[in-house]
Each structure stands twice: as C-alpha cells, then as structure tokens.
Design goal:
By secondary structure, the chain is of the alpha/beta class. The protein has two domains: about 375 residues, TIM Barrel (Alpha-Beta Barrel), CATH 3.20.20; about 290 residues, TIM Barrel (Alpha-Beta Barrel). The chain has a seven-stranded parallel β-sheet. Helix 9 links the parallel strand 5 and strand 6. Helix 18 packs antiparallel against helix 19 and helix 24 runs parallel beside helix 25. The chain starts with about 20 loop residues before the first helix and ends with a helix. The N terminus is likely disordered. One of its GO terms (biological process) is methylation. Belongs to the vitamin-B12 independent methionine synthase family. GO terms for molecular function: 5-methyltetrahydropteroyltriglutamate-homocysteine S-methyltransferase activity; zinc ion binding. It holds the Pfam family Meth_synt_1. Its cofactor is Zn(2+).
Length: about 775
C-alpha cells in the first residue's frame, strides 16, 4: 500500500508580478511620468494581486504565497520593512505621511533623485534578476514597518485565502547588504542581533493577523558559508522559533544545494524546509538522507524547475517525490524557486509551432504541473494517468524532433579536437604579425562597440516591427548611422573604430534571431529589474549559422575608413547566459555548438578583410556556479567555447574580448586561458585596481582597462583620464596597454560621448608624449 500524505499541498514561492499585459510596468512608469497619481498606482497593484490570487487558486494551488508582489524589488522591500533607509533618501523625501510620499521615498531608493543616488544594483545570485543592495553601517538603526506584508495578508484573507507571507530571511538580507563607507572591521552580518528582534516582532504581528505559515527565504545558504555563519543561522532560527505567538516557519533555499547548511536547518526548531530538487536534486537528496531525513518537519519540494521554460518530466518528478515521502514529515509540491524568473504563459505565444509550444512550460503551465504532481503524490499515478501520458508524448516529441537534434551539427561538435581550441602561434609571434599589419601607435585608443542608441534608432526599429518601414528603408537608416558613427570617431581621432551596433536590438537577441536552434517569444517577458523586462530567446535545438550575420555591417563600416574597424560578436557563454538554455544536454555541449557557429562568422569576417574581431563575454563571471567546487568544471567549458569560437584565425588577425564587472579575482586565470590578444575590462569604477591584478597574475597579452565609467553621463576631465592612464602604466607594461571606456556606449547620449572620447584621446596623447 502506498503511504498517503493527506497534508500534501500544491504551492509556489512566488509568481510573475507584472500581469499579462505588463500592467504593473505601465502603471509604475505612468506614475513616474506624473500621468497617474499614487492612488491609481496602488489600485493597479491591488487589482493585480487579486487577479494573481484568483489565478493561483483557480489553478489548484492550495497554499498561496503572500508578499511576493513588489513595486520594484523584494530586497528593497525588505530594507524598507526593516527601516534600513539611507539618510540621503530620507532627506530627499522627508514627508511620507501621504501614500505618494511613501512611494516617492521608496522609488528614490530604487532610482535616485537629483542629489540622492540610488542604492547599487546587482544580480540576484546566478539569475538575471537584479536586486537593490541594502546599505548598512555600524550605526544603522532599524525600525519595523510591517505594513506591506500585513496589508497584503489581510487583503488576501478578505478574498478568503490564508496566504503564506514570503520574506527575505535575516541571514540572506544581511549577507547581501553592503557598508558603503567600508568601515574597518565591520560587516553587515554584525547587525544580526539588532535585526532578529524585528523579525520576531514581525512574526508576532503576522500571527495576530491570522498567518499560519511564514516563509523566510535564505538563498544565501546555497553559497559556501563558513562555520561561523552557519552558527549564526542556528542561533537565529532558534531565537525566532522560541517566540510562541508566531506562524510556523518555512525556511526556503533555492538555486543550488544547501550543503553544510542542511544539517544546521534540519536540527533547528523551524517547522519546514524548502529545497531545490531540480539542479541540486541528488545533492539535496543525499544530504537529507544523511541526516536521517526531517521526520518532524514539512518539506516543500521544488521539483518543477522555476528557472527554465521546459515542460517538466512529470514521471521523474513523481518518483523524486515518492523518495522524499520517506524523508520528511510531509511533502508539499512546489517549483524550485519563485516563478518570477520565467515568463507568464505559453498560451500567449500564438506564433509558436504548436508542437514546440507543447514542450514548454511558463509560470502558468508550471502551476498545472505542480497541481498534477500533488494529485499524483496523494492519489497515486492512476489519478493522473492521462496527464502523464500526454507529458510523456510531448517529451518524446521534443527528444526526436529534427530541430532539436541535427546530425550535421552533432558530427561537427564531435569532430572538434584540442587543436581547434588553440591559435596556431603563441601570443608573441601573433603580436609581431599584428603589429606588421595594423601599425597602431602605443596606447591604442578604441571603444567597446556600441554607440548611443538614439530615439531615432529605436523609432526606426519600432517602425520596422509595425511594418511602417520596409527592410530596405531600415537598412538605409542603419547605414546612415554607421556612416555618422565612423565619421564621429575619425573626427575624435580614435585609432581602432567600431561600427556602433545600431542594427542590434540586443547583443544576444540579435544573434539568436539569425541562428538555427534559437526561438524567440512575443510575450516571454521576464523582470530584469524594476520596470525593466527582457525577452530572453530560447535555445531549443542544435545551433548552427545558416548565413553570415555581421559581415555586411563590418565590411560596410570598414569601407568608409582607412583605420581598422573591429568586427563585433557576442561570445558563446554570454549567448547562453542571457537565454533559456535547453536542459537535455550539458550546457558545455550547447556552448560548443554556439562556438562553432561563431567560429564560422569569425572566419568569414577575417576572409572579408576585417583585421580585428571582438568577441564579448560580459556574462562569463555572472554565470559562475554558486558553489566554488563547481567552478572549475564550468570555467573549463566556458573558456573552451570562447577558444573554439576564436582560435581559427590567422596570426595577423587580432582577437579582442570584453568583460565588465566590479571584481575579476575569480576569473583571472580564465582570462589568461582564453588567450585573446586583447581584453578590455571595466576598471574606472574601481580606480584601475584590475591592472595590478593582471600584472600580478602574469597576464601575458594586451589589456584595455576602462578609463571611463559609462554608468553615468558624467564627463571625466583630461586630467582624470591621464591619472587613470598613469596608474595603469605604472602597474603594467605600457606597450601592452590599450585605452578605452569601461563598456559600450549604447545607454549614453552623444554630448557626453563626444566630450569624453575627445578627452580620452587628448589624455592618451599627453601620456604618449611624457610616459
Ligand atoms: N559590444 C557591446 C557594447 O558595446 C558590449 C556590451 C557589454 O559588455 N554588455 O554594447
Ligand atoms: Zn561591458
């Protein structure tokens, strides 16, 4: 007799916030523009929450999460909840008596005001969602404002639903925070004793309002944490659990395995744990078994992948759930993480081949999968036989589809040898060949690729989409832009030019649209940050390049000038990082296919006379696995796929790459192994610290540390750029240095671009004359 678990429930951690028509984005932006007032925005928020609640309930979700809604970001909401509001934002919006006052202070933290810069923004673990980094110092004073979770709880109760409020847990909140002053010997986690009492108070208030469960998210525990932090985890949850008037506590982890934190939480007095049983399935299963299970606790089993868009393998998930029944007091069925990271609904995709649509599962479809699995778990397989059958045939259709497996692509990948990953000659010999061809001055000046994406360019693209502009007219407009960008760079006096990327909507989408194996969606919006949503392409099948993608643009640009124009491509790792990647083969295999397609493009650019080719890999570091022990394997395929895409060229073709992040420590060796002739890196924001790191690591090739932080329109003076250059020259051989901005200029305007690049060229001249 299969054991039945009557308490098993279907649940999720969270749901997309924006609404099917992206109502929330539109309402917030209208509020910013002064077109609607605070009441109207608050009403839109409330309607959306009501709508989502009904959608989840009607889908059969038995325990519905609360407080996952946000006007901007859930980490910002947590900072607000705890009263961790920087002085400058308090001063910027001193009066919060009215709803508008509250919203304005909240948005001031998110977006800044004229004199109060916003909180810093960074990626939420290894996702493409960005959160706002709380600012905490030794003197931060906290004060609880529980109004948001409480009001949302009560609002749902009025609809007859007792939700499970979801909050960022205290450990994760503090580990994600930063002290902007960098106070000696202080870490935000030192504030734990001040924060825990507020959480206790919050639990009490939620209990009073009628909450039965509360979910505290601790995703920071899936990253390596020292014993001292794990001790704090044990203390914190013991303290929180000691409060008697509180809801039951579910501690949620996701994105990876809990590792050493699992035994700590398993032996803590909290009533429930949520674990990721998708990517981290076997590690979490083993760890659960190793502690003898959690017979006294509720397990929320994330068996449906909340990070990808593929239909789940229901039979496999059901068998995982079956195993888990023996390891926990009760087992609930959920997605691995909030569904915030996937698009809303496949049925909106009317352009997709129905067969392909059957392979997919967006947030709305994942609800059905979860509900089905819950039924299968409690009522037995027979009860869901029909659905299992359909699921099986959809998985089979995907596995045998000719767009998924293309023998020619597979044969080509299988034939790759180690020699394909390496340039013919060592860097020293290549350098001579390149110097002989390019005749560049010392400290060559260049840019990263894009020039400002002006309103006219965006309008032209929109007009093309709506059919108001034909392809030929669009091409003409883009060519005119390339001419202008080349002329501009010649006027300024840069040494290596770019075509400016005007024809690219996005550096991944642009290539995805031209490669086989990639699919685009019409409505597959996913929140990137605040009101910014992206539509990542799906890599569904084997990747190849039917025809050249950029050669015409590069050769057109090159025909306009005597100076070298860099060809510009997006690297394989970044193409994967900013897409939904197939889950039926290792990522490294998919990366190799993309790499071979890019290799064809690189060789075609070379054959067309392009002497310098840049392959951007800005996502290389953000894709780094959360657990350090997984990193070497990742870097192996990441570096190999970059090499495979670039190593086919002649000695006298110069390969560039570009990366932009604050810290390069974890990837310095990878940068060396990639063996690009030149790498341009973000550096101005960290005062060129990277240059000394490169020297110390023995980086043997050429490097262009950025001298302009392009994140703001501020124009650095000639003296400032000279200062940066002298720092660089002092730490790294001048004959291997380049001069460039931190990143592309697409978000900047022409006034600051002209002024800064002019200063950059002037500063370079001064340093060349007096090294
Ligand atoms: N070539 C790209 C650009 O200049 C690089 C962008 C990036 O690093 N994210 O826009
Ligand atoms: Zn960049």
């Amino acid at each position: 007799m299969p054991q039945t678990t009557p308490t098993s429930r279907a649940t999720v951690h969270g749901y997309p916030r924006q609404g099917a028509q992206r109502q929330l984005k539109k309402a917030i932006e209208s509020y910013w523009a002064g077109r609607v007032d605070a009441d109207s925005l608050l009403t839109t928020g409330k309607e959306l929450r009501r709508h989502n609640l009904r959608e989840l309930r009607d889908a059969g979700i038995e325990e519905i999460p609360g407080n996952y809604f946000s006007f901007y970001d859930h980490v910002l909401d947590t900072a607000w909840l705890l009263g961790a509001i920087p002085e400058r934002h308090l001063a910027a919006v001193p009066d919060i008596a009215s709803p508008a006052g509250k919203l304005d202070r909240y948005f001031a933290m998110a977006r800044g005001t004229a004199d109060a810069p916003p909180l810093e923004m960074t990626k939420w673990f290894d996702t493409n969602y960005h959160y706002l980094v709380p600012e905490l110092g030794p003197d931060t004073r906290f004060a609880l404002d529980a109004s948001k979770p409480l009001e949302e709880f009560t609002e749902a109760l009025e609809q007859g639903v007792t939700t499970r409020p979801v909050l960022v847990g205290p450990i994760t909140f503090l580990l994600l925070a930063k002290d902007p002053a960098g106070t000696d010997g202080f870490r935000p986690l030192d504030l734990l004793d001040k924060v825990v009492p507020l959480y206790t108070d919050l639990l009490r208030q939620l209990h009073e309002a009628g909450a039965e469960w509360v979910q505290l998210d601790e995703p920071a525990l899936v990253t390596d944490q020292p014993a001292e932090v794990l001790d704090k985890v044990a203390d914190t949850y013991a303290t929180l659990a000691a409060e008697t008037a509180r809801p039951k506590i579910l501690v949620a982890s996701y994105f990876d395995r809990l590792g050493d934190a699992l035994p700590v939480l398993a032996s803590s007095p909290v009533e429930g744990l949520a674990l990721d049983f998708t990517n981290a399935a076997s590690a979490n299963l083993d760890a659960l078994a190793a502690v003898g299970g959690i017979p006294d606790k509720r397990l929320v089993a994330g068996v449906v992948n909340g990070r990808n868009i593929w239909a789940a393998d229901l039979a496999a998930a059901l068998s995982t759930l079956g195993t888990l029944l023996g390891l926990a007091g009760s087992v609930d069925v959920s997605a691995s993480c909030s569904l915030l990271h996937v698009p809303l609904d496949v049925t909106l995709e009317t352009d997709l081949d129905p067969e392909v649509a059957g392979w997919l599962s967006f947030a709305r479809q994942k609800l059905d999968e979860i509900v089905t699995l819950r039924r299968g778990l409690t009522e037995g397989r027979g009860a869901i036989g029909n659905v299992l059958h359909i699921n099986e045939s959809r998985l089979a259709s995907r596995a045998s589809s000719p767009i998924v497996r293309v023998p020619a692509v597979r044969d080509r990948v299988a034939a790759v040898t180690d020699a394909d990953l390496h340039r013919t000659s060592q860097y020293g010999k290549r350098r001579q060949a390149q110097q002989g061809r390019l005749h560049l001055p010392e400290l060559p000046t260049t840019t990263i690729g894009s020039f400002p994406q002006t309103t006219d360019l965006r309008k032209a693209r929109a007009a093309l989409r709506k059919g108001e502009l034909d392809q030929a007219a669009y091409q003409d407009a883009m060519r005119a832009e390339v001419r202008a960008v080349i002329a501009e760079q010649e006027r300024i006096g840069l040494d290596v030019l770019v075509h400016g990327e005007p024809e690219r909507n996005d550096m991944v989408q642009y290539f995805g649209e031209q490669l086989t194996g990639f699919l685009a969606t019409q409505h597959g919006w996913v929140q990137s940050y605040g009101t910014r949503y992206v539509r990542p392409p799906l890599i569904a099948g084997d990747v190849s390049r039917p025809t050249p993608m950029t050669v015409e643009w590069a050769t057109y640009a090159q025909s306009l000038t005597e100076r070298p124009v860099k060809g510009m491509l997006t690297g394989p790792v970044t193409m994967l990082a900013w897409s939904f990647v197939r889950d039926d083969q290792p990522e490294g295999d998919t990366a190799r296919q993309v790499a071979l397609a890019l290799r064809d493009e690189v060789l075609d650019l070379e054959a067309a006379g392009i002497a310098i080719i840049q392959v951007d890999e800005p996502a290389l570091r953000e894709t780094l696995p959360l657990r350090t022990t997984d990193r070497a394997a990742y870097l192996d395929w990441a570096v190999a796929s970059f090499q495979l895409s670039t190593a086919g060229v002649r000695d006298d073709t110069q390969i560039h790459t570009h990366m932009c992040y604050a810290e390069f420590g974890d990837v310095l060796q990878a940068i060396i192994d990639m063996d690009a002739d030149v790498i341009s890196l973000e550096a101005a924001r960290s005062n060129m610290a990277i240059v000394a790191d490169l020297a110390l690591a023995g980086y043997p090739n050429e490097a262009g540390p950025g001298v302009w932080d392009i994140h703001s329109p501020r124009v650095p003076s000639v003296e400032e750029v000279v200062g940066h250059l002298r720092t660089a020259v002092g730490a790294f051989p001048a004959d291997r240095l380049w001069v460039n901005p931190d990143c592309g200029l697409k978000t900047r305007g022409y006034p600051e671009v002209r002024a800064t690049l002019t200063n950059l060229v002037e500063a370079t001249g001064q340093v060349r004359a007096r090294p």
